[in-house]
Amino acid sequence: MTEPITGGCQCGAVRYEITGPMKAVAHCHCSMCRKAHGALFVSFGAVDNSNFKLSGEENLGDYESSEGGHRRFCKSCGGQVIIHGEALGDETFVALGSLDAGQTPGHDPATETHIFWESKVDWYDPADGRKTVEGYGD
Prior knowledge:
Blueprint: E1 5-8, E2 15-18, E3 24-28, H1 31-37, E4 42-48, E5 52-55, E6 60-66, E7 69-74, E8 80-84, E9 91-95, E10 113-115, E11 131-132
Parallel strand pairs: 3-10, 10-11
Antiparallel strand pairs: 1-2, 2-5, 3-4, 4-9, 6-7, 7-8, 8-9
């Protein structure tokens, strides 16, 4: 990885920079992610906290959606940006829809996984050939 990956919320009040590789990319189908983002599923990239730099943190709201897992969103535009907390250890989950235009996670798409597959909506099946697991899988 040569150039940092950048992103942020819709209004620009919250920005981030990723200086190391994403450890994993997952598409989450749990009801919490679907409700929080208003989407059929949400794509996240796991990043080591040491490779993640956040600016505009004073503009972030915080919602503890599960024990030790905090969803952080822009107080101005409502854009969901990250999930972090004790439950994630030394990682931050970045909402990939918040990457800047032209940015990519820089990973091998064949390694992506659909998690919480058992919770997906019944009327949509991405059928993209990627691995599906119940819960977080192993």
